[in-house]
Amino acid sequence: MSQTHISSLDRHDARQYVTVRIGGQLFGLPISSVNEVFAPDNITRVPLASFEIDGVLNLRGRIVTMIDMRRLLGLRDSIAAPMAVGIERAGEAFALLIDDVGDVLLLDDSTLEVNPTNLDDEWMGFVDGVHRLSGELMLVLDVERTLARIGVAHAA
C-alpha cells in the first residue's frame, strides 16, 4: 500500500491511522487509540464470555481481554494466526484481533467522508467515516463505540 503524503498541510488538519485488515476490508484506527501491535499467543478461553470475546492472555504481566473483530463485525470464522492491536480504556487492557496490520497513514481530515449508504447496518455502529485511497475505501474504526458494544464504558 502506498503511503499518502501530506506536505503542504498543517499537521492539525490531518490524522494518523494504523491500517488493519479484517475479513479483507481495510480499516483505519486512529493512532492515538493504539498502544501496540503484537501476535497473540496462549489465549485462554473464558467460560460464558460474550461471543465477541475470544478469551484473555497475559501480556507482560497484564491480563488482556481479546476481542475477535471478525465475530463483532459478523464475518466468517477467525483466522488461525491473527494479529492484535492493543488498546487501553478505563484502566483495562484490550486487544482487537485482526487479520493483518498495514502501514501508518497520515490523511487529511478534509478527505474524510460520511459512511456510504450501502454500508452494512451492523457496521454503521463501528465506522466513523471513510477515506478513499487508491483502489479501495479505508473505513475508520471508532474504538470507543467498538468497546461500548461489548460493555466497556468510556474512560472519563
Radius of gyration, CA atoms, in whole angstroms: 16 Å
Based on Cα principal axes, name the global outline: globular
Low-confidence parts lasting 5 or more residues at pLDDT below 50?
Answer: 1-10
Mind telling me which CATH architecture this is? Answer: Beta Barrel
CATH homologous superfamily heading:
CheA-289, Domain 4
| Assembly classification | single chain
Number of strands: 10
CATH topology-level name: OB fold (Dihydrolipoamide Acetyltransferase, E2P)
Mind telling me the CATH class?
A: Mainly Beta
The run of helices and strands is EEEEEHEEEHEEH
**Number of helical runs?**
3
Strand content: 35-45%
Q: Residue share in helices?
A: under 10%
How is this structure best described in words?
Residues 1-10 have low confidence and may be disordered. The chain is mainly beta and 156 residues long. It has helices at 69-72, 121-124, 143-149; strands at residues 14-22, 25-30, 36-38, 53-59, 62-68, 83-89, 92-98, 100-108, 127-133, 136-141. The chain has one domain (14-149): OB fold (Dihydrolipoamide Acetyltransferase, E2P) (Beta Barrel), CATH 2.40.50.180. The strands form 2 sheets. It has a 5-stranded mixed β-sheet with strand order 8-1-2-10-9, with no helix packed on it. The longest helix is centred in the C-terminal third of the chain and has 7 residues, at 143-149.
